[in-house]
């Protein structure tokens, strides 16, 4: 992977991948992170897979939340939930409904993990909003 880093096509893929990462997560990712792991993530996953036609970002996010819930990846779920709320792809109620739905397909403990991730993200977002409001009023 590293031997392609100077290649113009790879550079264009990197730009496309990082732009999609920024869109998916709602924050600015640096384009020059060293290492093959980031290269594969940006150049393949985000430049080639997330940009494919046929599914919206919201569709992909819902599929990803289902996969994450099925694997019990609550830390990753928090990142995805926060991004979905930040990008206004999903509401808190829709994510809760997804967790209820998934309980019946991936099992109650795994679906509950997704719901608990939502509860945690909601609390963090409300705390951040209160802190920002307090800072504005000072």
TrEMBL record:
UniProt-recorded Gene Ontology molecular function terms: peroxiredoxin activity
Query: Which Gene3D superfamilies does the entry link to?
Result: AhpD-like
Q: Which Pfam families match?
A: CMD (PF02627)
Q: Which SUPFAM superfamilies match?
A: AhpD-like
Q: Where does the Carboxymuconolactone decarboxylase-like domain start and stop, copy by copy?
A: 36-109
Xref: PANTHER family: 4-CARBOXYMUCONOLACTONE DECARBOXYLASE FAMILY PROTEIN, CARBOXYMUCONOLACTONE DECARBOXYLASE-LIKE DOMAIN-CONTAINING PROTEIN
Name of the molecule in the record: Carboxymuconolactone decarboxylase family protein
